[in-house]
Amino acid sequence: MREGYEGTGPGVITPDGCAVELYERLPVGDEPDIIAAAVPAGAHILELGSGAGRVTHPLLERGFTVTAVDESAEMLARVRGARTVCGPIEELDLAERFDVVMLASFLVHAGDTEVRRGLLRTCARHVTKGGCVLIQREGEDYHTDLPRVRVDPRGFTVRIVSAEPVGDGVNSVRAEYEFPDASWTQTFLSRPLTKDDFEAALAEAGLEVDTYLTPDGVWVRAVPRNS
Q1: Which of 66, 67, 115, 216 is 20 to 30 A distant from 32 in Cα terms?
Q2: What is the architecture of the domain spanning 20-140+192-224?
Q3: Cα angle vertex 92, ends 94, 135, to 5°?
């Protein structure tokens, strides 16, 4: 397990504390609609951190071509209908470019600054000159509106229990997932980023904000600078 990351519950737990069975169960939200509205129809999407395909599969159903990347072979084994690539995102170099590169799941908030830089360099390295990068950020109160609970109408509960400072601007976040027949926990490191911090990190990677796609600023479309 990666230092600062932990997961408990049934099934395989990935090095960053994600439970494969949990992520296979979690339903998709409005992400596919946000993505589809922001990119050209039929675009080829490079999905960085696809997990078990929660977003991948609805994108395929909408007619997109998806290359799904994840460091967990167990996660990728659940992905159907997409080309899959197993390996660390920050080291990825496919020697090809895509209409859309997607970095979701708050990965841009990696606790390790060098990992974040690597993630964004991967985005910049793989997007076409006229393409875009879609990034999912944490909400403004992600680390302060705690604890918070969401009871899903499909019969499970998600709790974000705490976000405790561990130094260098990084918090240790604990999440709990409770289903009628099983429960999981995940503890992970997250670095809060202000809007200015976020945009500076993009600039360092040669990217810039094109538009904030949602009123809360969680979903962002970025483009190569000087494109």
Answers
A1: 115
A2: 3-Layer(aba) Sandwich (3.40)
A3: 105
